[in-house]
Design a protein that fits this description.
Blueprint lengths: L2 H24 L2 H12 L6 E5 L2 E5 L11 H11 L2
Antiparallel strand pairs: 1-2
Length: 82
């Protein structure tokens, strides 16, 4: 991917995130909490997917003894890449 395409992609992602923030800012507290509760529940985390005739199997696991939760890990990874 060219640097120009990466910049366009970054701007597109940022615009999408900003529109979600704007939408959430307009919701009352109860609806915002309900929204986050709905999206924060893990869906089926273990799955198999076929890509070009190859099956990939993903099995998730979590260690409750770790000090870093999933949200903090994502924040760390995202901020590291900025």
């Amino acid at each position: 991917m060219s640097e120009q395409n990466e910049i366009i992609e970054d701007v597109t992602i940022r615009e999408a995130i900003d529109s979600i923030y704007d939408m959430l800012a307009e919701l009352p507290k109860e609806k915002r909490l309900a929204f986050f509760e709905q999206i924060s529940k893990p869906k089926e985390l273990d799955f198999a997917k076929e890509i070009d005739g190859i099956y990939y199997v993903v099995c998730s696991h979590f260690d409750n003894e770790k000090s870093e939760d999933m949200v903090n890990k994502v924040h760390r990874i995202v901020l590291k890449n900025e």
